[in-house]
Amino acid sequence: MTKKIAILGGGIAGLSAAWALEKARRSGQDVQFTLYEAAGRLGGVIGSETIDGCVIEGGPDSFLTEKPAAAQLCRELGIGDQLLGSNDAERKTYILVGKRLIPLPDGLMFMVPTKLLPTAFTPLFSWSTKLRMAREFLFPPAPATADESVADMTRRHFGQETVDRLVSPLLSGVYGGDASQLSVRAVLPRMVQMEHKHRSLSRAMLAARKAARVPHPGSSKSSTPAQASSGARVGSSLFTTLRGGMSQMVEAIAAQLPAGSVHLSTQVHAIGRNERSSRAGVAPSLPWTVETGFGQESFDALILALPAWGSASLLRLIDHPLAEALSGVPYSSSITVTLGYDRAQLAALPPGFGFLVPATEQRAMLACTFVHAKFAGRVPEDKGLLRCFLGGSGNDALLDETDARLTVMVLRELESILGVNARPQFVRIHRSRQAMAQYGVGHLERIRLVRDRIAALPGLALAGNAYQGIGVPDCIRTGQDAAESVLRSLQTESIPAPAR
């Protein structure tokens, strides 16, 4: 008997779940799936367009190469030849301090210095902070006994200036979040392991580099220049993207799904759970129902590939503690302002991938990527592309500013920071409301509770950026895991009970 599965959400997590189910169907499993998406297109925050030969990204522009799920998916879909590595020979990231762009010193592994001379001579830190870093190597603090914020951990080891000038802008660029709120155990788990083993993060990182030359141990999202502070990868680029834009991945999945399996512009109003009938002569009902404006349909299993707050709203009448746990995951919003220029107009740009702006600088901009330098071939040789980031935690008011006002803000700051006063040939603005999950202190305990509650609801699985990482590969993996989970539950359910 055919098993019916519903997927709610057509972002990359939901699409990855759909592709995993489609592969199972092609391999002979008797499954049928329906994907519901409230918007009029697939992809969620992923959205690409081409203007004057320039690839413009509304959401993430790439993914970390070291996380294999995204590249593997592209190869499965037959677009492996479209994968493009970052131009790491040009990789340099700056931090804005006052009106100066200061390059991150060589050997800095996230917040941990691993080279003496570059750290000693960088103007990024005061001498008191440099002495604090040296002292950390010799007299490290005791490891924390409970979860704490990334800012708290950094402060214990390297002081407040390191939080303000380095860690906060890095995490704001990656998460759009606040280092004083983000959980170090969820965001930088390997840092926590290193601290418990070595106490000194500097000694731990040196030992790790010597043993394996590993990149920085944090979770990452590949849409800003923030990750360019990491140690160089060996034998591959740090970032990978697709030549024609990240939407190529979305389009490739959609092209593989059966006709009629995707319902766009379809808002799910409610989900329900039926108790299976066991009376003689009465066929058991399917356990899950999905209600849209077109009516109600029943399913054997359900994958919620939605923001945690969206899943919480639908699950509130089914499992209130689960809904409460999901609704407690905070989210931040973001804005990207992409500006296209003649390359000659950007001749004064410093070499590198871009810059980050600490909150202490009190500017609207969080970061800026020099797209034409980051990836070869996505921008014509005579064009330049600047991708500026605004918003983040606590700055939702910017979402309601007009496009004209946001453009003026960005142009003023680009002139102040970079000296760029030329008029751009085009401007594209993308807003993502409540799209970026924030892993606050206690996040891992919250997710354990979520998993325990989900285990009591057979046939239900969750996917998305609220659980095990916020990057594109993380979301792909959660979608694949969700598909495997519901398939296992349906196979177990199909096994007849032994005769007594």
Task: Please give a structural write-up.
- The chain is globular.
- The protein is of the alpha+beta class and 500 residues long.
- It has 16 helices and 22 strands.
- The two termini are 25 Å apart.
- The protein has 3 domains: 3-44 and 248-329 and 439-494, FAD/NAD(P)-binding domain; 48-88 and 332-437, Polyamine Oxidase, Chain A, domain 2 (Alpha-Beta Complex), CATH 3.90.660; 110-217, protoporphyrinogen ix oxidase, domain 3 (Orthogonal Bundle).
- α11 packs antiparallel against α12.
- The strands form 6 sheets. It has a 7-stranded mixed beta sheet with strand order 8-7-18-19-20-17-21. Strands 12-2-1-16-22 form a 5-stranded parallel beta sheet, with helices on one face. Strands 5-11-6 form a 3-stranded antiparallel beta sheet.
> What ranges have pLDDT less than 50 throughout 5 or more consecutive residues?
214-235, 277-283, 496-500
Give the name of the CATH architecture of the largest domain.
3-Layer(bba) Sandwich
Class per helix and strand makeup: alpha+beta
Question: And the CATH topology of the largest domain?
Answer: FAD/NAD(P)-binding domain
Number of helices: 16
What is the CATH H-level superfamily of the largest domain?
FAD/NAD(P)-binding domain
Terminal CA distance reads 25 Å
**Taking Cα atoms only, what radius of gyration do you get, to the nearest Å?**
24 Å
Calculate the mean pLDDT score and round it. Answer: 90
Number of strands: 22
Shape: globular
CATH C-level of the largest domain: Alpha Beta
Largest sheet: 7 strands, mixed
Multimeric status of the protein: single chain
Q: Kindly state the percentage of residues in helix.
A: 25-40%
Spatial strand sequence of the major β-sheet: 8-7-18-19-20-17-21
Strand content: 15-25%
The total number of structural domains is 3
